[in-house]
Specification:
CATH architecture: 4-Layer Sandwich
Radius of gyration: 16 Å
Bound molecules: fe (ii) ion
Distance between the termini: 40 Å
Strand order of the largest sheet: 1-2-5-6-7-8-9
CATH class: Alpha Beta
Number of domains: 1
Number of strands: 14
CATH topology: Metallo-beta-lactamase, Chain A
Length: 245
């Protein structure tokens, strides 16, 4: 039995400061999961999402439920897909005026195409972001999963991997946590097998991510995985990707 209300921002279980501020779109069988990390007077908005009015308004409302958006000092963009970053120019209007957008080098070229005005910090594999509290986030590049400039972010404090489209899922019966959905692996296959083209980059990404201890995986679509993580990693290794070839 879930004890969260997806109509509002939800504090991710096992954490004190990571909020899901996304939405599910039952008609499309697709959820979009921006996450907000609050650390003292600083906050990070991860993959802020679409600029479609209904989507943006939902994410913005949920952000404003838990924080003054002007405390958001960074927005991390894991790759340049519109579902995760087309809203950047809209958020620029309400977040800290000196907001920094963080993206992998190759993605950083595309971010301004959305009409952003802020500084884009281009990062590469192993680069870190350190907040004023000393909390560190590590950027791990995952080339070709599913863009050349894709990356994921690891929060060293909570051992959370923000995995972008890796471990993402399509599901008409969306739940915030993967263990609430007995068909999550099927939902995960439905997204990943067509959207990731080749096995080699996927195995490389999984190998790199497995070098850090992971307590939870927060993907950009689908559900948070915080139980039986090994089961999902094994399922990912066995995916039959490139399904549309
Ligand atoms: Fe994507
Ligand atoms: Fe996506």
């Amino acid at each position: 039995m879930s004890n969260y209300d997806p109509n509002h921002a939800v504090l991710i279980r096992g954490t004190e400061d990571i909020y899901w501020v996304g939405f599910s779109d039952p008609k499309a069988g697709f959820s979009n999961n921006p996450y907000l990390v609050i650390d003292g007077d600083e906050a990070i908005l991860i993959d802020p999402g679409s600029r479609a009015e209904e989507h943006y308004n939902t994410v913005r409302r949920k952000v404003e439920e838990v924080i003054d958006p002007r405390k958001i000092k960074y927005m991390i963009v894991h790759h340049q897909d519109p579902d995760l970053c087309a809203s950047l120019p809209l958020f620029e209007e309400i977040v800290a005026p000196d907001i920094k957008i963080i993206a992998q080098i190759r993605t950083s070229l595309f971010v301004p195409y959305y009409g952003t005005k802020s500084e884009v910090i281009a990062v590469d594999d192993g680069d870190t972001l350190e907040l004023s509290s000393g909390r560190k986030f590590i950027f791990i590049t995952t080339p070709y999963v599913h863009f050349a400039g894709s990356m994921v972010t690891y929060d060293t404090k909570t051992k959370t991997l923000f995995s972008s489209d890796i471990f993402a899922a399509f599901s008409f019966n969306w739940t915030l946590y993967a263990d609430e959905n007995e068909y999550y692996i099927e939902a995960f296959k439905a997204f990943t097998e067509p959207y990731i083209g080749c096995k080699e980059p996927l195995l490389s990404a999984l190998e790199k991510a497995s070098k850090v201890p992971i307590e939870r995986i927060c993907p950009q679509h689908g559900s948070v995985i915080d139980k039986d993580i090994e089961k999902y990693i094994l399922a990912a290794k066995n995916l039959d990707v490139g399904a549309w070839l």
